[in-house]
Amino acid sequence: MSQVHNFSAGPCILPQEVLKKASEAVINFNNLDLSLIEISHRSVDFVAVMDKATSLVKELLEVPAGYSVIFLQGGASTQFLMVAYNLLTDNGVGAYVNTGAWASKAIKEAGILGKVEVLASSEDKNFTYIPKGYSIPENADYLHITSNNTIFGTQLKEFPECPVTLVCDMSSDIFSKKINVSDFDLIYAGAQKNMGPAGVTMVIVKDEILGKVERTIPSMLDYRIHIKKESMFNTPPVFSVYVSMLTLEWLKSLGGVEAIQMVNEEKAALLYAEIDRNPMFRGVVEEQDRSAMNATFVLEDESMNDAFNQALSDARINGLKGHRSVGGFRASMYNALPLESVQVLVNTMTKFSESHGN
Ligand SMILES: *Cc1c(COP(=O)(O)O)cnc(C)c1O
After folding, report:
1. 248 inside domain
2. What is the pLDDT of residue 2?
3. Domain end marker among 254, 280, 298
4. Residue 102 catalytic?
5. Residue 129 burial (10 A CB sphere; 0-12, 13-18, 19+)
6. 231 and 312 share a domain?
7. Domain enclosing residue 283, as ranges
8. How many domains does the chain have?
C-alpha cells in the first residue's frame, strides 16, 4: 500500500478503490475480455457508463428539470471560449469577475469574440481576496464567476444575487460541497481537480439560455449539439468518463456531497488552525476568503524552504509546491484526500517548528 500523501493541485488524488477498478477495466471491462478503451463508445456497455455518469451528476447535485448534463473535451479552458460562443450576443457584453489566473483567461478568450466588462478584480493584491459588493449590469448577456481559485487559494463562500444569466467555473470545488444548481444557468468543471482524471469536462446548462445568439457556432463548440447527441457527437474520452463515473459512485457510497462537505470542512479547519497557530507559517489569502480545497501558505522565513521541503519529503508528503505565481506552499485537499493525510501534514509542520523555530 502506498502511503504517499498526495496534495497535488491537479490532476488530483483519486480514491484507491477507483484506481483499482479503473485499472481492471483497462484489461477486462465487464467480463467482455476486452479493454474499456478498445470497444465502441456506442456499444451497450459504454453507453451504460455515459448514462450512469450523467445520472450520478444529476443525483449528487440534485440537478433540477430543465438542465442538461454533458461531458466534453478540451478542458475547462475550452469552456472559456465556448461560453462566449453560445451566450455572448453581437451587441451584448459578457460581465466577469477577475479572481485569478483562470478567470483572467476566461476574460481573454471571451474578448476574442465580443465585448467583455470586468466588474471587479482582485489583481491589485495578487488575487488574495474575493471582490464583493460590485453591481451587475442588468443588460449583460451573462455574469461569469469562478467559485474556487485553485492557484491563489480563495473560494466564494456566497454567490452573488444575479439578475442575468450566471455562469460559474467550478473546476476545483465541484462536488466538494452542497450547491443549489438552480442558482446558476451554466456550470462547468474540468474533471481533473475533484471528479476524475484529465480529459473530460462536465457542463450543466439550463436549456432555455441556449439558442439566443445570431452567430453560426462551430459544431464542436455548440452546447445544443452535444446535448442532442448525449455527449456522443464525436468519440468521447471513454476512460476519463469511466473513471469520473467510478469516482461519483464512490462519492455516493460515502453519503454524497453533504457527507464529503463535512470531511472537507474538517480537513480545512485542521490545516488553517495550524497555519494560524504556528509562528513559522503565514496564510497567503484573506481569512474570510480562504479556500477549503487549496490552502496557500508561506514560511515567514523563506530561507527555511529547503529544510521544510526535506521534512515534507521525509513524511512522504507530495504536491505541496505552490504555483509559480504565488510561491510558497499549496495544500490541495480535494475529496479523495483522507483526513489522516492532513493530520500528517499538520504534525510535520508542528514538528518542523519545534526543531527549527526559536
Ligand atoms: C485547472 C482549472 C482550469 C483549467 O482547466 P483545464 O482543464 O486544464 O483547461 C480552469 N479553471 C479552474 C478554476 C481550474 O482550477
Report:
1. yes
2. 55
3. 254
4. yes
5. middle
6. no
7. 255-356
8. 2
Ligand 1: centre distance to CA 303 (Å) = 31
Q: In this structure, which residue's CA is closest to atom 13 in ligand 1?
A: 171
**Which residues are paired to 6 by β-bridges?**
318
Grid coordinates standing for 346? 499538520
Provide the pLDDT for residue 189.
98
Distance in Å from the first CA to the final CA of the chain: 37
260 occurs within a structural domain: yes
The atom of ligand 1 lying closest to the CA of 148 is: 13
* Residue 277, domain CATH: 3.90.1150.10
Determine the pLDDT at residue 358: 64
290: DSSP letter: B
What does the alpha-carbon distance between residue 358 and residue 353 come to, in Å, rounded to a whole number? 8
In a domain, 246, yes or no: yes
Q: Catalytic annotation on 178?
A: no
| Non-local CB neighbours of 97 within 8 Å, separated by 6+ positions | 103, 118, 119, 120, 121, 131, 134, 143, 144, 145, 146
If asked whether residues 73 and 185 sit together in one domain, one would say: yes
* Active-site position among 193, 206, 267, 289: 193
Q: What's the confidence (pLDDT) of residue 357? A: 77
- Looking at 223, 254, 285, the residue that finishes a domain is 254
Quote the distance between the C-alpha of residue 116 and its chain's center.
24
**What pLDDT is recorded for position 158?**
95
11 within a domain of the structure (yes/no)? no
pLDDT averaged per 10 residues, the chain (length 358)? 87 97 98 97 98 98 98 98 98 98 98 97 98 96 98 97 97 98 98 97 98 96 98 98 98 98 98 98 98 98 96 97 93 98 98 90
Give me the phi and psi of 33, to 5 degrees please: 60, 30
